[in-house]
Design a protein that fits this description.
The chain has 193 residues and is mostly helical. The chain contains ten helices and no strands.
Length: 193
């Protein structure tokens, strides 16, 4: 596999940004965090802060559709349902709630959880956070099965560069491109085969 430069990544992002111009989804992260907090309020009172609920939702999100996470969230927050969690994700979410953790950087250190590190930060309001998951990796031409912290940092840097150019928050750039990539038939090949 050939190396993928930041310039190559940026070129792909620019093309996808332009092609996905009809995806005006500004505010997705804010809407989703508000929905989680609404569930938190509706199922409470709770012995942990609302931000812990947001982090717990992020913890159970890997490999589970986001609509499933939101649908099972009441059971997670009240401790009445295990939900469709895979592996240790449910235990991680329960630990977040039990300990009342609120700092996404502490809960998901970049070195061990680069995707969740940025996803949780974005949900908690950090506009500079760029989630690099399977779809974002494909968007910049990376093989999602071969992501390393360095490649994630390069992908984040490319998103931030585009964000500066178009005058939009990095998390909104990532969100729009992610939505466009997910909507495409074939969902983009990796592009570096």
């Amino acid at each position: 596999m050939r190396a993928v430069s930041r310039e190559f990544m940026l070129g792909r992002l620019v093309a996808l940004w332009d092609a996905g111009a009809h995806f005006e989804i500004r505010g997705w992260y804010r809407w989703e965090a508000d929905a989680i907090i609404g569930t938190y309020d509706a199922t409470g009172p709770h012995p942990f802060p609302a931000c812990s609920a947001v982090l717990a939702a992020a913890a159970v999100s890997p490999r589970i559709r986001w609509d499933q996470v939101k649908g099972a969230l009441p059971g997670l927050l009240t401790g009445k349902d295990g939900g469709p969690w895979i592996g240790r994700n449910g235990a991680k979410a329960r630990d977040i709630l039990d300990r009342g953790l609120v700092d996404p950087r502490e809960v998901f250190p970049f070195a061990t959880s680069p995707k969740l590190h940025h996803f949780a930060r974005a949900l908690c309001g950090d506009r500079s956070a760029v989630t690099v998951d399977v779809w974002s990796a494909r968007a910049v031409g990376l093989d999602p099965e071969r992501l390393t912290p360095r490649r994630v940092r390069d992908a984040v840097a490319a998103h931030r560069c585009l964000a500066r150019t178009v005058g939009v928050d990095p998390r909104e750039v990532q969100s729009r491109i992610w939505s466009f990539v997910r909507s495409r038939p074939g969902r983009l090949s990796v592009g570096v085969e």
